[in-house]
Amino acid sequence: MQPSGEATQTGFDNLEAGVKYQLYQNAESESIVSVGVDWDIGGSGSKRVGAEPFSTITPALFFGKGFGDLPQDAKYLRPLALTGQLGIGLPTRSSTTTIGSEGDVSVERNPHTLQCGFALEYSFSYLQSFVQDVGLSAPFNRMIPVVEVSMSTALDRGASGTTGTINPGIIWSGSYFQLAAEALIPVNKASGKHTGWIVQLHFYLDDLFPGSIGRPIFRN
Amino acid sequence: MRRLLQQLGLAALTAALVQTAGAHAFLERAVPAVGSSVRTSPTELKLWFTERLEPAFSKVRVEDGGGKQVDRGDGRVDAAAGVLLRVSLPPLQAGTYRVKWRVLSVDTHVSEGDFTFDVAP
User: Fold this and answer.
1) ipTM
2) Of A129, A133, A212, the CB nearest to B17
3) Where are the domains of chain A?
4) pLDDT (tens digit, 9 = 90+) per residue, A137-151?
């Protein structure tokens, strides 16, 4: 991470753990609804990159909708998919007290927050395999242009306002991992002044380790 | 030195675990191509996947516009090319045909999909 005008900082963010339960799934309409709880484990990451010293529990509702059920006239829109989540962030500490190098004390309030996010993506892989072979070759046939929106609204403890970013980017999804690069555009002044960017590497553990940690706990 | 040993250990562990890795089989390409229009009736449908398939649990079916199966029912994974699923077709009249496939890659991941192709009048 390199804040504008400051030195580069490196380190891990807080470790996150979560559980999710699928409430509804319909293959025909390509739709799914789940509920879950995310646990941001306070103090497990590096303060240098902004990892909080306290934990935050976030119960949330998740949804996903693919558009493969659109009529033939709109077939080129079928590779679109919309996913999103709505949750409440519940910090385990109401405030954080920091003592500076000169003994000055600052208290930061940690409000409950409304977390809202969604992503709209267009899968070239779906286009090639399910709709129309337009002749895309590697690596383009595995690319997914995406726009993510992530918003957070403070609800109490003297805090107010909404912060968030709009993140346009591109994902390359392989058989064992996914690589993504996105710009982070602040939605308002409270969210930041400059556009940032982020690169993510996700591994598909169920494909890499199908016989061990990738094996389902419950299987029909 | 300790860090180097840790990295080597992690690399060895990863290599050992990845030896058993496998992935979902995605449709790589098809003949007739996905969404294509062909002038003459094809005698065979061929589907190439990104992973080797388990022959006993990999199926393909071709239906006409009314949902009736029109292929010859001899769908099979090619013995020489384990990523190729093929089925014979009788002479097809002009119209839209839907291909439905469901495959099991050799590491036991199931994937399925469908697409259409047209036989032009």
Assistant:
1) 0.75
2) A212
3) 16-208
4) 889 999 999 999 999
